[in-house]
Amino acid sequence: MPTQTAKNRQLLPHLGQLLPSKPTPMGLDVGNSATKALIGNEQMSIPSYVQPIYTKLHQLPAEGFVRYVAGNQAELHGKCWLAGKAAYQRNPEAYLRVCDDKQAKITQALPLVLGALSYLPFQELWDLRVVASIHHAREMGGALKQALEGTHTVQLNDHSGPTHVSITVLKVLDEGAGAVATAGLTNGQNLIYDFGGGTTIISVFGEKGRLINRQVSPGGANALIDEIATNPDVIRRESGEADRETIRRGIENGTFAYGLQSPW
Known about the structure:
This protein is an alpha+beta fold. It contains ten helices and 13 strands.
């Protein structure tokens, strides 16, 4: 019987010959509520949800599905999952959320990145050069880099052929650094307010975008959504606690329509 390592060698081609000559730059932020990415010129956001799949699906979906065939992350070999909105649609009661686990910004980073690729037009080859952000980048950046980097062969959605993904992490920055760079705030001191899903962060950046101080407070958009879902008026209208993902969509699209059966 061939070993798993031997199987991986058979499944993984020589990526140096296959990868595009021009790598694709990627900005990445795995958040408590959403995983945001800029992949080339494509800006995208998917809910930070993962749903492991343990049984064979009767029909593979057109987006959100990942089967890990081979690669550096041995613990993922042979595993399948749904990412983003597909995870919620599969199991609205029991999908995994980044905000439920303090380690999930690291442990679910690769499943969410590969899941994000499943929402883009199919490509056989990806050579991603990533600049990521995370809270406490100095303490957690190395773990995030290790979780993401390497070569990964996956099946995405209902495509019969594999997708080969090479990920190189160039830098892990503190959350807020992207806003400083985008706004060109390189002189003096600047305050960045980050109202996230699980936390509210106030950061002070100094000359050349250097982080000087940071204050992290618990509570963010998820706390607001919980308050709406459990509001007495909402419970009366919905005959129980409201669906939190419906509330989230209503906030994000600006309609503030919260009803699951009929919007109100």
